[in-house]
């Protein structure tokens, strides 16, 4: 029975939380060795790729993660049929499967969970989880993010708000919630607001999850009196949870939202600590390397890019996969006493940094978090598009007094540019919009669109 497998995984994950950081490291190393053996035996791609680097199955015991070459989405997709460890999976068939809308809530051949993504690079990515992999992932999220108590007698009522019309990571994960433990209400961010409000009011969720922007929208409706719900746990992922959103959610539901770090490559990478600011990386089932452009590990407190190794997906294993998310490791262990490393921040994708060129040819950037935290009165929603190297277009949705809001936006942006010495380098325009569309390929809203030239 799949539910028993899930419960077994959940118990094992709970047990790992009692270990210390050193014991987690031992567990991680064992799991890495097992995975390496598995790919050398089952993936044509990994076998020949590693062989080129002198790594063969008889050397598994001596090989460390750092001895292996890195991969990325492009390499994985180019070699897809040889890359996966299951001969039943073919890229062409999978692409056909996901492009048929009648398959949206279905598993491929009844057992494989297929996730697709594109990301700002535009490279389509397919990620397949086999039944066991998916059980481990679900257990990870249930244990450490939604913190579901195993009870077959009282179901948790979970409402999810996000893009629901595709094989996106978020909706696939909540659809995978075991029905014995949970009742689910999926809500599409693209549905009329009145319909969303009516459904969620009737449902009365005990837990609420979804895109930060979607949860924020519901918090606004609660404050206006259009809905009246009392979730005991609120979880956000996918798009940035800004300071303003967090405050509104807290005010609406009298609860602190938990931010959750997920990617199609693993939909359970880390979750925000209940006590401190920052996220705990689940490094018992992943290896996280935070590196500079030359793949050298960076020091805690310094930003680096994430190289991910997913230790539970045996169907489409990712080893030293460049995720390109910008991460800063905290320089002290967390006060909560949990064994998992703490990260101070995840600053979106590397592409989301805005780079400018000064008169003397040197480069300067604006950190995405500065845009994420762009809060001024009257500003409802923002998108920053870099239309030329030194030119920004700010698309804004505003409410209240238009002139006041616009001058506040201009003041704040000028302040940011002055902080970087860019006030005479970068020009910006503010454009008032009624709506800012989500990216149709990813189903996600894009806050920053950098110059592509
Ligand atoms: Zn903590």
Helical proportion, percent range:
25-40%
What's the rounded overall pLDDT mean? Answer: 88
Q: Separation of termini?
A: 53 Å
Helices and strands: which structural class?
Answer: alpha/beta
Kindly state the number of beta strands. Answer: 19
Tally of DSSP helical segments = 13
Low-pLDDT ranges: none
Major sheet summary line = 11 strands, mixed
Structure commentary:
The protein has 13 helices and 19 strands. With 453 residues, it is of the alpha/beta class. Strand 8 (266-272) and strand 9 (279-281) form a beta hairpin. Bound molecules: zinc ion. Residues 273, 275-276, 280, 334, 336, 338, 342 line the site of zinc ion.
What characteristics describe this protein?
453 residues; alpha/beta; 4-stranded mixed beta sheet; single chain; binds zinc ion; 32% helix; 13 helices; 11-stranded mixed beta sheet; globular
Give the secondary structure arrangement, pairings included.
Elements: H1 2-16, H2 21-42, H3 44-51, H4 73-78, H5 80-83, H6 91-99, E1 113-117, E2 125-129, H7 131-144, E3 156-162, H8 169-175, E4 182-188, H9 193-203, E5 207-211, H10 212-224, E6 233-237, H11 243-253, E7 258-263, E8 266-272, E9 279-281, E10 286-291, E11 303-310, E12 321-329, E13 342-349, E14 354-357, E15 363-366, H12 368-372, E16 379-388, E17 391-398, H13 402-419, E18 427-432, E19 448-449
Parallel strand pairs: 3-4, 3-5, 5-6, 6-7, 16-19, 17-18
Antiparallel strand pairs: 1-2, 7-8, 8-9, 9-13, 10-11, 11-12, 12-13, 14-15, 16-17
Bound molecules: zinc ion.
